User: Which sequence fits this backbone?
């Protein structure tokens, strides 16, 4: 199959996902294969060759822009691109170059993969490569602030734990009592997923927002310190 034909099939999968409003089942599996360390081994020479080829291709995919990688993970199931399949190395390299010019509007996919990305964050809290990729992935909309038009904002999340010391003491102590922070701590994550930043697509007429969860037992201390309650 020609690379042009494979690209057209990939575009068709993208259109189908957008119409359905959710990512195909192979999306999360693709990202696992690309991002999570592959510890497979085999006594078979041919299988070892396939595994090595898949690892090389996964490494190449990790160099893509995060939005382009999201596009790829929807467009091409693992059975099509992984090592030892019908896609030759030449075809894979050609397709890799072609998708970069086809993914200008890849941000449109982010709302339909949000749940999958969040599930991967929780499933692999100690996988630094995956966590770094998720930190670079932006997800429009806000279930917390309830913006009248979610498309006006881009959501960024994920902060390194050692960066939390830069927060004011009052907010940092409240954050560390929150359930979301405690979940990250329980998962031994190097990334704090509790802080969300909402960046407006129209910075001239809209403010940006930072959302930080506060432990319900600690919130009254903050309210008193700010003079909101006596």
Assistant:
């Amino acid at each position: 199959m020609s690379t042009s034909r494979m690209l057209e099939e990939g575009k068709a999968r993208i259109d189908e996902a957008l119409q359905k409003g959710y990512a195909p089942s192979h999306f999360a599996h693709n990202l696992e294969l690309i991002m999570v360390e592959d510890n497979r081994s085999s006594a078979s020479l041919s299988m070892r060759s396939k595994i090595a080829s898949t690892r090389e291709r996964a490494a190449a995919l990790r160099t893509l822009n995060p939005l382009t990688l999201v596009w790829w993970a929807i467009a091409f199931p693992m059975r099509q691109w992984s090592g030892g399949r019908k896609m030759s190395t030449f075809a894979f390299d050609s397709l890799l170059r072609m998708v970069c010019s086809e993914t200008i509007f890849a941000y449109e996919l982010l709302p339909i993969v949000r749940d999958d990305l969040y599930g991967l964050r929780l499933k692999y809290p100690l996988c630094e490569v995956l966590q770094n990729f998720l930190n670079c992935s932006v997800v429009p909309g806000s279930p917390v602030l309830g913006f009248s038009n979610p498309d006006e904002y881009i959501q960024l999340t994920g902060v390194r734990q050692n960066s939390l010391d830069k927060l004011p003491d009052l907010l940092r102590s409240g954050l560390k009592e929150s359930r979301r922070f405690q979940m990250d701590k329980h998962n031994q994550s190097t990334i704090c997923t509790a802080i969300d930043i909402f960046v407006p697509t129209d910075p001239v007429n809209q403010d940006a927002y930072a959302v930080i969860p506060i432990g319900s037992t600690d919130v009254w201390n903050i309210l008193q310190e700010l003079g909101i309650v006596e």
